[in-house]
Structure formats: structure tokens, C-alpha cells
Input
Amino acid sequence: MKVFKVEEINKIKENVSCIGYFDGVHLGHQRLIEETIKEARRLNVSANVITFYPDPETVVSKKEVKELTSLKRRLELFEEYGIENVLLLEFNEELMCKDKESFINDYIVSSNVNTLVCGFDFHFGYKASGNVSDLKRYKEFNTIEISEVKDNGEKISSTRIRKLIEDGDIKEAKRLMGHE
Output
């Protein structure tokens, strides 16, 4: 698996990418990855991930966020699950302040995305002003929206898994993550 930084974005060939922070690479995230790989195979292009480091919340809120999964482990899991390339974006003040149109053009269009896979609640751009509807308006790429992934009627999320860990329910947290 190849990891690209933004300076190398022009080297990325046509692809299907999923996008997000992917803390935990939990069962909800795995659904995005599965759809990305399925669509990439259908189109005979690479299956990629666009992700961020550090956790955007640490830059936005200026507070430390406890990660479920280190960057190193996230990259290992992406590769294990079949991802071929990762575009790793440094989440800093500059990226945080990008308007939604610049974000789309600078990172999605510029990385030759044919189809973008994202969660129903994905937000991007300055003050999270961009959403899935904005992505779907672009003609340069297709957008596949993945609906909420639930377990026992509740959304599978990194927040939920963190709470389980804090409460000492490691077995349930591991089940929702789908890996150690």
C-alpha cells in the first residue's frame, strides 16, 4: 500500500476513495471500505482512502482527543482490508479554514477520484459547512452515500466505542470495532 502526502497528489491515478478520519476503523468504517473496494473492482481502478492526521477534533477544539487507533494501526488495517493507496492529509489550521469548494477541488478532484464513498454524516470545509449534498452536486466525480450503520438500534461510532472502553466493556468495544 502506498501512502501519498498532499505534495504528491498529482501522482494518484484514477480511483474510488472513501473519506474520513476512521478512528477505530470500526464496523461502520469497514462498511465504507467494503463499498469502496467493490466499486473500485467494478471500475477496474484502485481502492483508496482519504484520511487525516491528527484527529481534526484536536485542531478544531484545541483539546486532546483519545484515539482508538494510532495512525500506524489505521494504515495497517486499511491495507489488511484491501485498500491500495492512502491520501494522508495533515489536518492543520490551513486545512481547517478551507472553504468547501476549495476542499473538494484541492483534495478530491485533484486526487483523480472517480467515485467518492462517504458516510451520511460526513462534513468538511470551514466550520464543517460542506456535506454529502454538496459532494453530489459535483460532476467531476460520483458520490456514494453510505447510510448509518447500526447495532442494536444504535449507531456504531467512535464515540460509542470510547464510552464502552471507559465503562470497562472491552468485549463489546472489540465486537463493534471488528478487530483487536
Observations:
- The mean pLDDT is 95.
